[in-house]
Design a protein that fits this description.
Blueprint (H helix, E strand, L loop, with lengths): L3 E5 H15 L3 H16 L10 H10 L9 E3 L5 E10 H19 L1 E10 L5 H9 L3 E5 L6 E2 L13 E5 L7 E5 L6 H10 L8 E2 L9 H6 L1 E3 L4 H13 L9 H8 L7 E9 L1 H4 L4 H16 L8 H13 L1 E5 H10 L2
Parallel strand pairs: 3-4, 6-10
Antiparallel strand pairs: 1-12, 2-3, 4-11, 5-7, 5-11, 7-8, 9-10
Length: 338
């Protein structure tokens, strides 16, 4: 069994910034990345928390990411906000452009942010929840590397291709989901490998296209989409929306760009913001009540809303002031961060 140790919440931030700075990221990038890692670790999202510092280091070692680039935001009179991350991690570009996306969504009713030329490794829910905190609905998607076989296929063509959505709820945690269209997230398979645990059935095939529960064989072979042909179609849609639609790479092109060096995928990201006031004709209160009746109908029959466990973990960890992290991972990171 994996031994867990307690780490104070503030130390999650400090360890992240210290490690990122030491391996080559500027203070601005380190702080932006560290905040994402902090939020994920606080919510017990182990696959996207401190564990991702290893990928940030690996990406820097590969020699293609720019740890000091300043994002370039392109001026626009319309509802589309374009930002060039300039071969850096995506998070600083998103952080600096988000206020403009919110402003345009409130002006036009709908707005889109396109992030180009970025390395991406992070969860999407913190970004769409920033929109729901402002009373907007948010939707985001990215491709990745071509690790995932399409339904009926045997080799990777698609990315894990996550999709995130957040809906604002007055005085309550937002309705949020964030999931990969692969049956398993890539980071989860890596965690299963580190823990020596077999994968569930039906999430991966080996290099010969045979079903496998071996995490290493899955990493050497291909992952599968959830839901068969339906998940595969959704994954292809995300390839198009976050690739050719915004003049950026598909997962196959991202994999080729990496040249086998590992690290975070290189591609684009699209974030969409929707203003309920404009889209409901100003009838926000009435339609908030309609949405709450829907949520109540779900909860009253014993079902759970997406992210409910994550919000419970957030409240628990915030109250006690610490999170639990695998000891082996923490020791590895302490060495990396000096």
């Amino acid at each position: 069994m994996t031994e867990m140790v307690k780490v104070a919440l503030e130390e999650v931030r400090q360890l992240s910034v210290r490690t990122l700075s030491r391996v080559g990221y500027s203070e601005r990038h380190a702080v932006a990345i560290a905040e994402m890692l902090f939020q994920c670790q606080r919510d017990d999202c182990q696959s996207h928390g401190l564990f991702r510092l290893l990928m940030c280091h690996q990406t820097m070692k590969a020699g293609k990411v720019d740890g000091h680039a300043t994002p370039q935001i392109y001026p626009s009179d319309g509802a589309i906000v374009r930002v060039d991350a300039r071969n850096a991690m995506s998070l600083l570009a998103v952080n600096e452009t988000m206020p403009l996306l919110i402003e345009k969504a409130r002006k036009f009713g709908m707005a889109a942010m396109t992030v180009n030329k970025c390395f991406h490794f992070s969860a999407l829910w913190p970004e769409v929840e920033r929109l729901s905190e402002k009373g907007l609905a948010g939707l985001s998607m990215v491709p990745s590397h071509s690790w995932v076989a399409p339904a009926g296929g045997k080799r990777g063509v698609l990315g894990t291709n996550p999709l995130a959505f957040s809906w604002p709820r007055a005085g309550k945690d937002p309705f949020t989901f964030d999931f990969a269209t692969s049956g398993f997230a890539r980071g989860e398979i890596e965690l299963y490998l580190r823990a020596g645990k077999p994968l569930p059935e039906g999430v991966a095939v080996d290099a010969e296209g045979n079903p496998t529960t071996d995490p290493q064989a899955a990493l050497d072979g291909a992952m599968l989409t959830f839901g068969g042909y339906k998940g595969s179609a959704l994954s292809i849609m995300i390839e198009l929306m976050a690739g050719p639609l915004i003049d950026d790479l598909t997962s196959t092109e991202s994999m080729a760009f990496a040249e086998g060096q590992g690290g975070a995928p290189y591609h684009g990201q699209i974030i969409l913001a929707f203003d309920p006031y404009h889209l409901s004709g100003g009838r926000v209160a009435e339609n908030d009540a309609r949405a709450e009746r829907l949520f109540a109908d779900i909860l009253n029959q014993g079902a759970r809303l997406p992210s409910q466990r994550r919000f419970e973990a957030r409240a628990r960890n915030t109250a006690r002031g610490y999170v639990e992290v695998p000891r082996a991972l923490l020791e590895e990171l302490m060495k990396l961060g000096g």
